[in-house]
Write a structure and sequence with these properties.
It contains ten helices and 15 strands. A hairpin with a 2-residue loop joins strand 4 and strand 5. The relative contact order is 0.13. It folds into three domains: 74 residues, OB fold (Dihydrolipoamide Acetyltransferase, E2P) (Beta Barrel); 156 residues, P-loop containing nucleotide triphosphate hydrolases (Rossmann fold, 3-Layer(aba) Sandwich), CATH 3.40.50; 61 residues, Probable gtpase engc, domain 3 (Ribonucleotide Reductase Protein R1, domain 1, Orthogonal Bundle), CATH 1.10.40.50. The radius of gyration is 22 Å and the shape is flat. Helix 2 crosses helix 10. By secondary structure, the chain is α/β, with parallel strands linked by helices. The chain has a six-stranded mixed β-sheet with strand order 12-11-10-13-15-14. A five-stranded mixed barrel has the order 3-4-5-7-6.
């Protein structure tokens, strides 16, 4: 009988590892979905020595016992990770902006898009409250840049089904300023979703609540959405101290012009002979996107390459 068991710290575990997904971590315990069951696990000490912290979204191998507890033995290589919210292997970042109250802030939108692009996450822009005003201008800016844009209204249900489809088959997180309608959107897509607006506000760190725990909620086959603070407080500053030389790759519409400037050291902000500036002047690239690029470039131009390295 003991041949198919293994003993660790005086506990007996099944010797066959299970592959699973961390859906939540809190207080040193990790809840891993594996084989249609959620197991409560601890992480092996080797991860602390390696300065690796398990994140929600990590694919792991675990050993478990009969009371649905166990330990994490391996963490698979991540394709990406975010620091705030602390979540790994995100497929899509939904950037929520309302067309009114508050009006769109293109620089915030563009910074979120740039971080997503540099992390290998697909950015999708959701424009809310379109029953109150048309979103033609903002749709044109981002569609021209090659970004997927969906206009939605919880009043008319415009776009609700499309966002629901985009959430399927992937791990997603949400970002957007307060008041843009994130929770209203989610409630419209998932009427039985069990995260209420008040609970979300508490988890954001308002008042006495300061938790930054992330939970992945299963919304379909191989589909998860990150609970707060992913819904609201995606922190672009903490997620990526962007190297100024890499920033250009956060603006996908610049790509076809790279390598064509007069000077190889071109920053694409003000130089003569810059092909990107020419494209802006001739309407091939929108002025709004380039203004955001210049603003972010000026923010990050003094960051040293060593400062962009992180241990997780």
């Amino acid at each position: 009988m003991m041949a198919d068991k293994k003993r660790v710290h005086n506990k007996v575990f099944h010797s066959e590892a299970l592959e699973g997904l961390i859906i939540k971590g809190i207080g040193g315990f990790y809840y891993v979905e594996a084989a249609d069951t959620v197991y409560t696990c601890i992480a092996r000490g080797k991860f602390r020595k390696q300065k690796v912290t398990p994140y929600a979204g990590d694919h792991v191998k675990i050993f478990v016992d009969d009371d649905k507890t166990g330990y994490i033995d391996e963490i698979a290589d991540r394709k990406n990770y975010l620091f705030r919210p602390p979540v790994a292997n995100i497929d899509r970042l939904f950037i929520i902006s309302s067309i009114v109250e508050p009006s769109p802030d293109t620089q915030i939108i563009d910074k979120s898009i740039a971080v997503a692009e540099l992390k290998g996450v697909e950015p999708i822009l959701i424009i809310t409250k379109t029953d109150m005003n048309d979103a033609d201008t903002i749709e044109w800016i981002y569609s021209k840049a090659g970004i997927k844009v969906v206009s939605v209204s919880s009043v008319t249900n415009e776009g609700i089904g499309e966002v629901g489809e985009l959430l399927q088959g992937c791990i997603s997180a949400f970002t957007g300023n307060s008041g843009v309608g994130k929770s209203t959107l989610l409630n419209a897509i998932f009427p039985n979703f069990d995260i209420k607006t008040a609970e979300i506000s508490q988890k954001l760190g308002r008042g006495k609540h300061t938790t930054r725990d992330v939970e992945l909620y299963k919304i379909g086959e191989n589909a998860y959405v990150a609970d707060t603070p992913g819904f609201s407080s995606f922190d672009s500053e903490s997620n990526e101290l962007i190297d100024k030389d890499n920033l250009v790759f956060g603006f996908r519409e610049f790509e076809s012009y790279l390598g064509k400037c007069k000077f190889t050291s071109c920053s694409h902000t003000c130089e003569k002979g810059c092909e990107i500036l020419r494209a802006v002047n001739e309407g091939e690239i929108t002025k709004s996107r380039h203004e955001s690029y210049k603003a972010i470039y000026n923010e990050v131009k003094d960051i040293k390459p060593w400062q962009t390295n992180r241990n997780v």
